[in-house]
Amino acid sequence: MKSDIKLPEHKCGLTITHNEHRNYYQTAAAYIQEYGTDLGQWKSGDALKRAIETDQIWSIHWYPTTPVGFCVVFAPTLEEALELANEK
To answer: Which pLDDT belongs to residue 73?
Structure first.
């Protein structure tokens, strides 16, 4: 089956998460306030603001070459998360 979704290149694991903050009964704003932006990369302050406004956080976490070094990106939409991940 062919898909139009382009995932970042990875030789080890890749995980896509949607609204993990809700698993802890948190809003996106509370989650971001607690963890800041230390967990991964946001494309811009505008993307961060929209995630808070919509209470939506998509994350992509992957290991490009080995199970040691990894990348994490966050975005308010899946499309934006995929776009940012593929820029790396």
So the answer is: 96
